[in-house]
Amino acid sequence: MSFDRKNHWEGVYAKKTPGEVSWYQIEPAVSLELIASRGISPAGKVIDVGGGASTLVDKLLCRGFQDLTVLDISSKALDYARERLGKRAKVVKWIQADVTEFEFPEKYDLWHDRAVFHFLT
Fold this sequence. Notes:
This protein has a four-stranded parallel β-sheet with strand order 3-2-1-4. By secondary structure, the chain is an alpha/beta fold. Helix content is about 35%, strand content about 15%. The chain has one domain: Rossmann fold. The longest helix is centred in the first third of the chain and has 11 residues, at about 5-15. The radius of gyration is 14 Å and the shape is globular. Helix 3 (about 55-60) links the parallel strand 1 and strand 2 (about 65-70).
């Protein structure tokens, strides 16, 4: 029997709020610093892989980024972010998929993830 990643992560977010998981950051300072250091303009295409409930998308929207995509295996994690963002969620592309199986239809100026492949093992 193989491990069902999607059911695992849906279960995590069914049992815990984003603030209750060990990897959650209210202020993703290191990620924001790294993105800024790359010189990506707010017009650049940015994807946050495994970004589900992360606040990074909020912070990038506040900094004027306009072409944002968030991919996560958990629809529940994505729901947390969409609910938090309210009307601003409409300007973000949301993809519920397993990154190891997803075929990306677009190219991005910046790929961000916080050890997403580590968490999938």
